[in-house]
Amino acid sequence: MIAKAWRATSKFLRSSGFVSVLFALIAIWSIVATSIPQGVATLPSVAAWAKAHGSLEPVVAFLGLHRAFTSVPFLACVALLALSTALCSWERTKVALVRTRVLRKATAAGSAQLAAEHDCEIACDPSMDGSAILQTASATLQHLGVHVKRRGDVLASVSSPLAVWGSPVFHWALLATIAVVALGSLWRADGLMAVAVGQTRADASASYGVINAGPLHDWSKVKRAFRVDAFETDYRSGGIDRGPVPTVSVLDGGGKVIRTQHVYPNMMLHVGSLSISAPEFGFAVAMSLEDTGGAGVGNSIQYVDFSQVTTDGTIPVAPIGMYDSSGGLRLIVAASVVLDRANGQAIQWMPADPSAHIRIYGPDRSLLLERTVKPGEAFALPGGEALRLAGIGWYSRLAVVDDWTAPLLYAVMVLAMLALAATVFLRQQVVLASVVEGPDGRTLALRLRLWRNTSATRAEIVHELTGALAETREGSGS
Q1: Domain edges within the chain
Q2: Can you tell me whether residue 371 is helix, strand or coil?
Q3: For residue range 161-170, what is the model confidence (pLDDT) as tens digits?
């Protein structure tokens, strides 16, 4: 009873209908996820979407669509797809093992074995000797696209045993792809890091504005940093305008440069398990804090993004906190860059005469003062210090992915494509023919196994050989 239930369950899990439903669910889920901000609820983009879609947010949150690719429904579909793929792979492996044995046996088969064991016999014209029969049969098979070779008294067209492994290897590679992706999610880390031109930031979780890391990712073992060496506002390469492009360096734990490269679409920076792209850019507002005597006591950089909905045309990525000696929050600094305007729209570029609009808030988020200052200018803060605008430059937002399984993923995908090509294009067949001397004259004994990508069917082969030699009669075993 248990065995019967398992066979029925296995057959259902391997069925094309079930697999099609899983693929459809995963595809629909992925498409929906592209229209919904991904991340924790505290992210500004997620919070803004939830506020704008109040009626949908409870359903989206319940389904886990803000973390679409780690949610329970998505992982359940992937797990079922992996189980289905594993069962299909095993079934195809068993078939390939049987066919491999058949092919190896056919490779060594001689005329005596064919006389004893064949699928059918074709009676031959009594006037034809053995050599003429084989020559005629060879020409007929070649005409049908079956390329046979003469092997003593046997005509043979036997595929390589490797040909039958395309389908099982393809399915095992698909399963390996799922496994590698799942494995990578445990160690993978990916996030967005803002780096101003000339600035160096450590590859640590605190440096990222947005970060997703697997439970086994060990930050203590990461000893490297990133630096933006330059930002070219109009970079051309290969005769193509690449637009604004940063030059990014990866440094080791000792500060030595590992690699430096321009980073733009379709030109990521790869170092070991790292892949770095630069999807966005904005302004870097450098500020320095001075004590009552005018001596500098601290520096900070405010990252500023473009925004058409604000008065200045820009918005700070995150405010900067100022703390007292005991660690208590004293003041909050938020800076934006005042953009030039044309036809009522903010020009999302460096202003002709750059200035920063700086707001100072108290710990309770109440606005204490605001000033618009130019580079080099300073103004007094509550408490006696002064805040000086050191300069306005560019920053690049780096998208950093640290995933040591990426080469494995590429390898299994390449293997899958090669196996699929083998499945689609390589023939899987056994065609053996030999002349048998019998009491009723000479006959052509045939053994045929036509599995995949064959140029002719069994019926076509038998019909053409019959027309070329004589009439068919059923043979003595198969």
Answers
A1: 2-92, 109-159+427-474, 183-278+399-418, 282-393
A2: strand
A3: 999 999 999 9
> If residue 335 lies in a helix (H) or strand (E), which one and from where to where?
strand 329-337
Tokens 């023939």 sit on residue: 427
CA pair distance 427, 412, nearest whole angstrom: 23
C-alpha distances out from residue 171 to 25, 88, 89, 427, Å: 20, 7, 5, 18
Cβ-count burial of 392 within 10 angstroms (0-12 exposed, 13-18 middle, 19+ buried)?
Answer: buried
Residue tagged 């053409």 (tokens): 464
Output the six-digit token pair for 225.
Answer: 């940093």
Enumerate residues 6+ apart whose C-beta is below 8 A from 410: none
448 bridge partner residues: 431
Show Cβ contacts of residue 343 under 8 Å, excluding neighbours closer than 6 positions: none
Q: What is the pLDDT of residues 23-56, one digit of tens each?
A: 899 889 889 888 888 877 766 678 788 888 888 8
The CA distance from 473 to 225, in Å, is: 79
**Residues 403-462 pLDDT 10s:** 999 899 999 999 999 999 999 999 999 999 999 988 888 999 999 999 999 999 999 999
Q: Quick one: tokens of 46?
A: 């997620």
Residue 471 has pLDDT above 60, yes or no: no
**How is residue 288 written in tokens?**
């320095």
Here the tokens at position 134 are 């084989």
Bridge partners (DSSP) of residue 432 are 156, 447
Nearest by Cα to 39 from 228, 226, 210 = 210
Among 384, 354, 332, 212, which Cα is nearest to 285's?
354
Placement of tokens 């005991």 in the chain: 326
SS3 call for 248: strand
CA 242 to chain CA centroid, Å, is 24
Which CATH architecture best describes the domain 109-159+427-474? 2-Layer Sandwich (3.30)
Distance CA 85, CA 13 (A): 9
Round to whole Å and give the CA distance between 372 and 387: 12
Q: 188-219: buried (b, 16+ CB within 10 Å) or exposed (e) per residue?
A: bbbbbbbbbbebebbbeeebbebbbbbeebee
Neighbouring-strand partners of residue 182: none
Q: How many angstroms separate the CA atoms of 262 and 103, rounded?
A: 54
Answer yes or no: are the C-beta atoms of 361 and 388 closer than 8 Å: no
d(CA 134, CA 442): 11
